């Protein structure tokens, strides 16, 4: 009888260790996903001044837009909390979209290989940021679910695991439905 009790206790302890390790792994996965977003944002922040410098001479009448892009970049670089970063990056995304739309008014920009290469790099980086945000949100969701589901919620509360409430949402500018006018 004592052996059975000892086996049950050992099995229970092993189960607790497995659940604890699973929660630690999920928490680290969330941190890694956030780090991947930061890598892509750093890349974006490094590309923006190059793009602005490349187009500055061509876009003499758009200095206000260029200034706003640089200011939004500075705000995004200095943000530290996830909600502040998300807000600042959303504003920066909106301004970059506006800047790219203005390129259409400048045929010489569309012909400039440096500008086109920088625009392509920035577009690729935007896509990678989008993918990284999705991965981060998925990681947060899986981690938070594990913290709430029985029996891992008992282990989570015992060892003081905290939920991540930092989902990275789409900026307001990206939530708007684009207007398409096909009339001739």
From TrEMBL:
Claim: Membrane is one of the keywords in the record: yes
Domain of life of the organism encoding this protein: Bacteria
GO cellular component term of the entry, any: membrane
Location of the protein in the cell: Membrane
Gene3D superfamilies referenced in this protein's UniProt entry, alphabetically: LemA-like domain
Annotated TM spans: 6-24
Annotated membrane topology: Single-pass membrane protein
Keywords: Membrane, Transmembrane, Transmembrane helix
Cross-referenced Pfam families: LemA
Protein family membership: Belongs to the LemA family.
Official protein name in the record: LemA family protein
Species in which this protein is naturally found: Candidatus Fischerbacteria bacterium RBG_13_37_8
